[in-house]
TrEMBL record:
Origin species: Streptomyces montanisoli
Name of the protein in question: Uncharacterized protein
The organism's place on the tree of life at top rank: Bacteria
SUPFAM superfamilies recorded: Acyl-CoA N-acyltransferases (Nat) (SSF55729)
Length: 245
């Protein structure tokens, strides 16, 4: 299959093709991080050169990935707390004239029928190339480990250290990054914070939350904490910081 990289803003993609691309990827609550909503519009506007689409020979988008540029001194302590703070640092940095030196890969998705064939790796490689062209010397990613949802009770610090017999991570998405030469840098226990009313969480999860307390939710990498008296549910999404070479 001959695939081509294009900027996502190079053309308008038909709705049904985008629907297919994103049809199996993220749980509904992924968009419930209120801070992200403050930044996403400006991210799309300022950093369109770092938002790429992998397109097949008939022009259908089959994978996508995007990132933001930040300034970072290379130490784990100075990393953003995760995904959301990366967006904030990138947008505020741009508005304050801070010169960025690091690409943060923020997301990648592969169309369901073509998963497991290395397309995400192609997208990340293209992003790393775009980073080089944009003068960004380093590449990091707050990785959302896809199998963490099966271990919602396990702290991310523990989970990220789990390996298979061959020494690779137990998690397939971390493995994809490792195969491209990336290493685990640090845990990002609160990469994002999703909040909603009890009714919203019931809709997003397809569950009922009759009492206050902690719940395992479908596709949740950690637990949802429900407080019925405040009519609020809070979920903190853990990620793993990885650095590409
Ligand atoms: C995570 C994701 C981007 C990986 O893309 P990909 O191109 O399938 O990645 P790879 O081909 O490198 O495969 C990665 C692993 O997926 C596993 N895999 C194989 N077939 C799969 C399938 N049909 N569905 C899911 N995972 C599959 C494989 O185990 C592989 O790991 P291994 O080869 O070390 O065993 C893709 O699964 C996806 O779009 N997921 C939904 C969105 C998401 O979670 N994005 C990441 C957070 S931003």
């Amino acid at each position: 299959m001959a695939l081509k990289i294009e900027r996502t803003d190079a053309r308008t993609w038909p709705d049904e093709q985008m629907k297919e691309l994103f049809s199996e990827g993220f749980p509904e609550f992924i968009t419930a991080d209120r801070l992200v909503k403050d930044y996403l519009g400006r991210v799309r506007e300022y950093f369109a050169d770092l938002n790429l689409m992998l397109v097949d020979e008939s022009g259908v988008p089959v994978a996508s990935g995007w990132g933001v540029p930040i300034r970072w001194d290379g130490t784990a302590d100075a990393l953003p707390s995760g995904y959301t703070q990366s967006l904030a640092r990138a947008v505020e940095g741009r508005e304050q004239g801070v010169e960025a030196d690091t690409l943060v890969v923020c997301g990648a998705i592969v169309t369901p029928s073509l998963k497991g064939r290395g397309l995400a790796g192609e997208v990340i490689t293209a992003l790393c190339r775009a980073a080089g062209e944009a003068g960004l010397a380093r590449v990091v990613a707050p990785v959302r480990p896809t199998t963490k949802a099966r271990y919602p009770l396990t702290p991310i610090e523990t989970f990220m250290a789990w390996k298979r017999e061959d020494g690779m991570s137990l998690d397939p998405w971390i493995r994809t990054h490792q195969r491209l030469g990336a290493e685990i840098l640090a845990a990002a226990p609160v990469s994002q914070t999703m909040t909603g009313t009890v009714a919203e969480w019931e809709r997003w999860s397809g569950m009922a939350f009759p009492a206050s307390g902690d719940y395992v939710i479908p596709d949740g990498l950690s637990l949802l904490t429900v407080d019925r008296s405040a009519d609020q549910g809070v979920y903190r999404e853990p990620n793993v910081w990885m650095r590409h070479r």
